[in-house]
Amino acid sequence: MRARRKKSEAGFTLLELMVALVAGLIAILAIYYMSSASAHHFNEQQRLAQSQMALRMATERIRRDVQRAGFTAVPNTSRVQTCQSPPGGTHMAAIEFLDNADFARLQQPASNPNLAQADRLRLFGNFSTGFKYMVRGVTGNTVVLQQNWQAFQASFGDPANYDGALFAEVFRPGRWVHLDNRKGQHVFSQITGVNAANRSFTINPAPQNSCAVSHDAIVTPLQRIEYAVVDETDPELTAIFANDVSENERGFGNSILVRREIDFSPLGAPIAGTTQVV
Fold first, then answer.
1. For the chain, which terminal residue's Cβ has fewer other Cβ atoms within 10 angstroms, N or C?
2. For residues 190 and 177, what is the distance between their CA atoms, to the nearest angstrom?
3. Which of residues 98 and 214 earns the better pLDDT score?
């Protein structure tokens, strides 16, 4: 009876304990591997979904801007009857395509380049409003708009709720205006100043007397929009990506598609404060 009692009180042997520990370790490692693989797959799917969403939004934005190219302007200023030469004699086309102009901005590892190209797209038209406006009068180089014109009130409010700040933004100095004298003649000039209180702006060059730009003329603000590829060294994006070192740690930086407004010089210099990450 004493021997039977000692046998019933005996525990696991060392071999049994080691076998149990190994079996438990194998089970834990299998579970960990499966959960890790599932988490990695989930993160990859989330990243892919975000990339696809960003691509769809970028494509839709580009599509809308391309549709507005030349809107309330002309497809090409050199192909219409202009009453006088555009500012600086520089003609503008509604759509300008620069083949692979930003290839140098594609940050690719030298050991495994993806052979991608980076084109640049420039658009010319009215991207700030959806209307044309009627001229009240032109004195020298000063153009005053008719505030009772329906399109003017739809954009900037009626006289009691006039938004002068928005007017100043739409007719920002440096942009162009398109003046239509209702005789099939077009006048393009550059805005040099704006007086929101008087609903007016100044332009250069002033319309010639022969252009007959008077109170019945129609005017439209014009911009140049550019889609370009940049990297974190771009001055407009330095502050945004100052703390993003994840890509740089791997030896190359981010290539970023941006939308920005450019001036009307032949080179099209970016205008500060207009860059947006697409």
1. N
2. 6
3. 98
Which H/E stretch holds residue 32?
helix 14-68
Residue 115 Cα distances to 39, 41, 109, angstroms: 31, 27, 11
Q: If we measure between CA atoms, which residue out of 39, 28, 65 comes closest to residue 261?
A: 65
* DSSP character string of 166-213: HHHHHT-BTBEEEEE-SSS-EEEEEEEEEEGGGTEEEEESPPPGGG--
pLDDT, one tens digit per residue, over 117-161 is 889 999 999 999 989 999 999 988 999 999 999 999 999 999 899
Which pLDDT does position 122 carry in this prediction?
96
Neighbours of 265 (CB within 10 A): 10
Q: Which of 169-183, 205-219, 236-250, 262-276 has the lowest mean pLDDT?
A: 236-250
**Quick one: how far is CA 6 from the chain centroid?**
83
The answer to whether the beta carbons of residues 109 and 255 sit under 8 Å apart is no
Going by the DSSP 8-state scheme, the letter that residue 40 receives in this structure is H
CA atoms within 13 A on the CB side of 122: 20
**Inter-residue contact 271 to 261 (CB < 8 Å):** yes
Joined together, the tokens standing for residue 213 give 């730009």
Distance CA 154, CA 166 (A): 12
